[in-house]
Amino acid sequence: MAGNLHVRNLDDDLIAKLKLRAARHGRSAEAEHREILRQALEFEVEPSFDKLADELRRLTASRKQTPSEILMREGRDER
Predict the structure, then answer these.
(1) Which of 11, 27, 37, 51 gets the most CB atoms within 10 Å of its CB?
(2) What are 20-50's pLDDT values in tens digits?
(3) Is residue 18 classed exposed, middle or buried when 0-12, 13-18 and 19+ CB atoms within 10 A define those classes?
(4) What is the DSSP letter of 68?
(5) ∠33-36-40 over CA atoms, to 5°?
């Protein structure tokens, strides 16, 4: 599926550099932009759920945890 991506508020210097790079590679600025994005994301690996869960546990290890049964009881009592 092809889509469109519009990038606004780019610095004029960045646009000029993109156009120069595109010219060096014999492509349009749009094609160069696509290639830069493709190269930047080509080898990016999405972390697994287990890895994300481990990271969340590590980040929240020092926080006080309230057992879910207490939270559920408090929720029922507020009704």
Answers:
(1) 27
(2) 999 999 999 999 999 999 999 999 999 999 9
(3) middle
(4) H
(5) 140
